[in-house]
Amino acid sequence: MSGFDPKKVDAVVLVGGKGTRLRPLTLSMPKPMLPTAGLPFLTHLLSRIAATGIERVLLGTSYKAEVFEEEFGDGSKLGLQIEYVFESDPLGTGGGIANVAPRLRHDTVVVFNGDVLSGADLGSLLEFHHGHSADLTLHLVRVADPRAFGSVPTDENGRVTAFLEKTQDPPTDQINAGCYVFDRKIIDRIPRGRPVSVEREVFPALLSDGVKVCGYVDATYWRDMGTPEDFVRGSSDLVRGIAPSPALPGDRGEALVHDGASVAPGAVLIGGTVVGRGAEIGPGSRLDGAVIFDGARVDAGSVIERSIIGFGAHVGPRALIRDGVIGDGANIGARCELLRGARVWPGVELPDCGIRYSSDV
Ligand code: GTP
User: Fold this and answer.
1) Pairwise CA distance, residues 167 & 255, whole Å
2) Which of 13, 14, 149 most suits a substitution to test ligand 1, by most atoms within 8 Å of the C-beta?
3) Is 356 helix (H, G, I), strand (E, B) or coil?
4) Is the CB of 94 under 6 A from ligand 1?
5) Does any domain span residue 242?
6) Which residues form the Nucleotidyl transferase domain (predicted)?
């Protein structure tokens, strides 16, 4: 195998989406910047890119674009050269790729959705792409239940044979993992100046045009962080070391408590819980797979399971929040119960016992 020089690869990370499924958290911060195991989510991905030896990264921004540059600047802290390519009107995933074309310097371009947590070996992916002389290589991951995703079958030579929408009866457990290696010239075929979806429009068109599209298949850690359920799970997996990240230390534990946070005696923190900077956790509370953003407060005796508590939000005593999202600065009164996907918008005040799913107050 000839190998490749990662310095001759441009990385493109798409971070311009509005992240509607993660509202209300994404009202104040773009999804790839949400704190995940104590770091902006994107830091985990950028560290992976840097660890592969790739140096040049173009961030395709749109929604809340300025936040990215404030955090990452020129990229030197991560050992990268980061440039920003802004879309005033979001162009979709395909349009976002086409929009960076004038700024590309290399013939090999690896594109990432900016909200995927993955353990794929990027060096192997690039070697596969070159070894197969592909025009486009998709990272495909095997998942236990492919029905919720588009499935992408390949033939015995690794060539993609179809792009199938979600179906109850997928012919393969290989799904599109949101990471692609393009030969530079293929990017020029993406329609310009209008929104384009890479998954729904560009890939099927390339396939029917006879472009050599290959699939690099693995079964490493993979999670699209697009929903609260996945965000909570991915964060917990990062904390516990189940999800890999070169940005975090090798040995990780059951919970992560950040500087300036206070955890009262008798509070139980398990399941990959994260407590953000300056957050306060009261005595006798139980946090299982909880994501507590900076400055939030959880009072005595509360139970938080698989839920996100936004910046500066407050959960009163003996509340129960399970599979919920509490927006920044919201105030949840004592003994409230919020279950099964409940979302509280920023700044909302719920009085004591204001919402319950049971009668035993
Ligand atoms: P939802 O609104 O919840 O679907 O989230 P999203 O807007 O992030 O869309 P999706 O999860 O499908 O996007 C996958 C990745 O592509 C994310 O990292 C997005 O930030 C990014 N993305 C989505 N749309 C655009 C766009 O129009 N332009 C750019 N540059 N990136 C985009």
Assistant:
1) 37
2) 14
3) coil
4) no
5) no
6) 11-238
> Six-digit token pair at 258?
């950040």
Q: What does the pLDDT look like over 209-222, one tens digit per residue?
A: 999 999 999 999 99
177 Cβ partners below 8 Å, 6+ apart?
Answer: 116, 118, 120, 138, 139, 140, 141, 222
Give pLDDT, residue 252. 85
Q: Are residues 60 and 172 in the same domain?
A: yes
Ligand 1 lined by 92 (C-beta under 6 Å):
yes
User: Is 60's C-beta closer than 6 angstroms to any atom of ligand 1?
Assistant: yes
Give the residue with greater pLDDT, 241 vs 251.
241
Going by C-alpha positions, the residue among 272, 315, 309 that lies closest to residue 294 is 309
From ligand 1's centre to the CA of 26, what distance in Å? 12
191 phi and psi, to 5 degrees?
-55, 145
Tell me the pLDDT tens digit for each residue of 261-293. Answer: 999 999 999 999 999 999 999 999 999 999 999
Is 292 a member of any domain?
yes
**115 and 180 belong to one structural domain:** yes
pLDDT given for residue 165 in this prediction: 78
Question: Closest ligand 1 atom, CA of 114?
Answer: 18
Out of 227, 262, 277, a domain closes at 227
Identify any residues that bridge with 274 across adjacent strands, giving them in sequence order.
256, 291
Which residue's CA is the nearest one to ligand 1's atom 12?
17
**Ligand 1 centroid distance, CA of 32 (Å):** 10
149-176 pLDDT tens trace: 989 999 999 999 999 878 888 899 999 9
| Last residue of one domain, picked from the residues 227, 246, 273 | 227
State if residue 226 touches ligand 1 by the CB under 6 angstroms criterion. yes
Q: Is 185 a residue of the active site? A: no
For the domain that residue 98 is a member of, what is the CATH number? 3.90.550.10
Residue 31 covered by a domain: yes
- Domain range for 265: 254-350
The DSSP letter of residue 340 is T
Is the domain of 34 the same as that of 146? yes
Residues 211 and 135 sit within 8 Å (Cβ to Cβ): yes
- The count of structural domains within the chain is 2
pLDDT digits (tens, 9 = 90+) for 325-341: 999 999 999 999 999 99
- CATH, residue 284: 2.160.10.10
Q: Residue 208 above 50 pLDDT?
A: yes
